[in-house]
Amino acid sequence: MAHNDSRLNYSQEAWFNSLPELASEFHRRHQRPLVTISYAQSLDGSIATRNREQLALSSPEAMVLTHRIRAVSDAIVIGINTLLTDDPLLTVRHAEGHNPQPIVLDSNLRVPSSARLLNHSDRRCWLACTDSNSPQRCRQVEELGAELLCCGADLAGRVNLFDLLNLLGRKGIKSIMVEGGSQVITSFLESRLVDKLIITVAPRLVGGLSVLDRPAAGGSFLRLNSVSYQSCGPDLVLWALPNWQVT
Ligand SMILES: NC(=O)c1ccc[n+]([C@@H]2O[C@H](COP(=O)([O-])OP(=O)(O)OC[C@H]3O[C@@H](n4cnc5c(N)ncnc54)[C@H](OP(=O)(O)O)[C@@H]3O)[C@@H](O)[C@H]2O)c1
Predict the structure, then answer these.
(1) Mutational test site, ligand 1, from 41, 49, 105, max ligand atoms within 8 Å of CB
(2) Residue 188: CB within 6 Å of ligand 1?
(3) Is the confidence at residue 5, as pLDDT, over 60?
(4) Cα gap 62→3, rounded to integer Å
(5) pLDDT in tens, 67-104
(6) How many CB atoms lie within 10 A of CB 124?
C-alpha cells in the first residue's frame, strides 16, 4: 500500500520485519509483551484540544505508518477517556495486515453500550478493569460482548499495569502498541513499562492537552536513546528507546 510515501531508514524498516521475532524473544524472557508507545503530537506536545476533543494531527503518510504499527502489534491499548471522546475502532485500514486485539483500560467499567469497539469490531474488546466492580456490572458488560481482564488496582485505584502486562503475557500477547491518551501514556512511562517510542510530530501549534499529564520519570526527566528521525509527508517521526538510567 502507500507506505512508500514515508521514507523509513534501514533500521526502521528492519524493526517492522523483526518485531514478531523480537517480541517472541522478549515474551519468553520477561513473560510480558513488548510495549511500543506510538501517538501523534503537535510541535508543542499537544495530543488533543484543551477540552480533550480529538485532533486530526497526523498526515495521511503518518497515518499509514501508525496503521503499519497496529498491524504488526498483537494488541492495541487505549484509556477509557479516549474511547469516550474518540469512539475509535482501532482497526487497520491504511495498511495491510491484521487488526490488533483492542484493549481499553477502564477500571470502573464506564464503557457505554454504544461504543463502536463493542459493536463494530471483528474482535471481542478486552476491558482491563479492577476487582472493585459489582458482579452485576461485570455481567452487563460481558453481555455487551466485552471480555474482562480483572487486575489489581494501583495506588490511584486504576488498573495496575504490571498486573495487566503479566496477564497479557499469560494470554500469549507478545507485543502491544499504546496509543493514548495522555494519562495512559504517562502511566506506562512512569511505570517504566515502555520498550520503544515512535512519535509523530505534526508541524502545528495547538496549546492543547499535553501528552504528559505529570512528570514521566518521577523527579527527573526521561532521556531517549538510539534516536532516529523519519520524514513522513509534512510530519517528523521520532523513533527512540527509553533510557531509564537516572543521570
Ligand atoms: N494524538 C494522539 O495520538 C492521541 C491518541 C489517543 C488519544 N488521544 C487523545 O487523548 C485524549 C484522552 O486522554 P486522557 O488523558 O484524557 O485519557 P486516557 O489516557 O485516554 O484515559 C485515561 C483513563 O484511563 C483509565 N485508566 C485505567 N487504568 C489506568 C492507568 N493505569 N493509568 C492511566 N489511566 C488509567 C482511567 O479512568 P478510570 O479511572 O475510570 O479507569 C483514566 O482516567 C482524547 O482527547 C484523545 O483524543 C490522542
Answers:
(1) 105
(2) no
(3) no
(4) 9
(5) 999 999 999 999 999 999 999 999 999 999 999 999 99
(6) 14
175 neighbors 70 (Cβ within 8 angstroms): no
Cell of 198: 515512535
Question: What CATH number did the domain enclosing 63 receive?
Answer: 3.40.430.10
CA-closest residue to ligand 1 atom 31: 159
pLDDT averaged over every residue in the chain: 94
Query: How many domains does the chain contain in total?
Result: 1
Whether the upstream peptide bond of residue 180 has omega within 30° of 0, thus cis, is no
Measured CA to CA, the distance from residue 138 to residue 103 in angstroms comes to 16
| Structural domain containing residue 121 | 2-243
Average pLDDT over residues 132-139: 97
Q: What angle do CA 49, 52, 57 make, to 5 degrees?
A: 45
